[in-house]
Queue: 2 jobs
Job 1
Amino acid sequence: MEEETLKKLLLACACVLATTALAGCGSDDSSSASSTDSTTEETTTTADTETTTTTEAAKPTVVSIVVVNATPKGGIVRQTLSEGDHVVLVVKSDVADEIHLHGYDKSTDVTAGGTARLPFTATIPGRFEVELESRAVQIADLTVDP
């Protein structure tokens, strides 16, 4: 085998091994709305050098809503998002109810005096209501721009 071909073969094997090792480092943690930061490292190897690039994952956009006497404190919360944004609705409420994000059909329960977190990715452009479902009270209005 020629020396150049051997180098290319070794480089390809090293890349496959590195990719396999990095893939095994993932987590199956379903708490996608955690407040911890994460980073991604990419390693590129050439015949003579190795370069590691670290990029920090984007922090989610947090939309905070406070519910007092079953209505949003200060009025309906209005937030504009960009398509692809990672978003966490954080609802602190003095009443128990279901928090429902229309259009995305995502919901979670909040207890009286509790705080609920509803994470989602803004994948659908448009305008969407967030409401206290059983009371039919709108608490937020989200606009997702393409």
Job 2
Amino acid sequence: MISIAIRYKQCYTDSMKFKVLQENLRKTLWHRIEEEGLTGLRLAEQTGFKQAHISNFLNRKRGLILGAEDQIIFG
């Protein structure tokens, strides 16, 4: 019983960290769009994602899959 509780807590913690990571990335991208002139289209070209996917992520309609952050950050 204890091991199940520990596994559940670990999954919950990892999931929450991933959501925080995505939110921080979203805020950083919005800052670059507003302050530095980055566009969703340019970001899509740099990362290989479709512009619609970038738009959905920025507008909180959808999240990213695990690992996609690296593609956006390091493009």
